[in-house]
Amino acid sequence: MEEEMNMNSLKAKVLTAALPYIQKYYGKTVVVKYGGNAMIHPMLKKAVMSDIILLKLVGINIVLVHGGGPEISGMLKRLEIPSKFVDGLRYTDDETIEVVQMVLSGKTNKDLVSLIGQLGGKAIGMCGIDGGMIQAKKLDGDYGFVGDITHINTEPIENAIAHGYIPVIATVGTDLEGNVYNINADTAAAEIATALQAENIITLTDIRGLLLDVNDPDSLISNVTSKDIPKLMEDGIISGGMIPKIKGLDKAVNSGVKKAVMIDGRIEHSILIEIFSDEGIGTMFTK
Predict the structure, then answer these.
(1) Minimum mean pLDDT range among 18-27, 263-272, 277-286
(2) 3-class secondary-structure state, position 30
(3) Are 181 and 173 in contact, with CB atoms under 8 Å apart?
(4) What angle (nearest 5°) sits at the alpha carbon of residue 259, between those of residues 254 and 262?
(5) How confident is the model at residue 23, as a pLDDT?
(6) CB 28: neighbour CB atoms within 10 A?
(7) Alpha carbon distances (Å) from 33 to 79, 169, 175, 208
(8) Is the pTM for the entire model greater than 0.90?
(9) Burial status of residue 128 (CB atoms within 10 A of its CB: 0-12, 13-18, 19 or more)
(10) For residue 286, what are the β-bridge partners?
(11) Per-residue pLDDT at 7 exceeds 80
(12) Which of 6, 43, 133, 196 is 20 to 30 A (C-alpha) from 190?
């Protein structure tokens, strides 16, 4: 009996401690970019979706933007289509863009919507083609059908939020001629956060954050400013798939988004730790 009372007292203290943060974020928009191991591991996937539902229930407008790199690579392998990456971006030829659209907008997106529903949440799946949400042109360079975002139409996202749904967005886009483009999910999340003037953008990764040494998890860089980025790129600390992540987060905080962070999606409840504490975790990006 005493043990149960202590446990209930602890729960009450946790809720009380969270109150100032709930008040701070109430009615505000938080964009979560979701991918990596947190998306593959079933228990972590369930935990992340549960956290997102909780945030929605306490009055925070969550917009979930997801990638699906491992699922795309898996399908390409099954179809015997080689995967190729250039500057951290997936080279996307005619065959690959069909697979990207099919996997991201179809299975990956609807699996997430279904899981949120199973856990008691209310989500609606959409992709950048819907309502002309993500308008794009071909990215300069030899990347194939990789898109450079020209405009974000926030109306479909805002309509979903207004009706009580969690928007779950797959990052494919289109141009006025109907060409479909593969949009890097980190870039899309940052552009969506900027267009919505979000309070916060949270990127889930497979590491603790930005590391001075990728082989040393204790070499976390806890704060990065815009002026730090060129030197970090020159030194190779920011490279490969980390480039679009960092560029997107940097652009977001310089375009009106209040806060941008990169956190370890492998840590259970990492989103809650980030939002409901002063210390937070991972790497924070500032002007």
Answers:
(1) 277-286
(2) strand
(3) yes
(4) 105
(5) 92
(6) 14
(7) 28, 10, 23, 15
(8) yes
(9) buried
(10) 225
(11) no
(12) 43
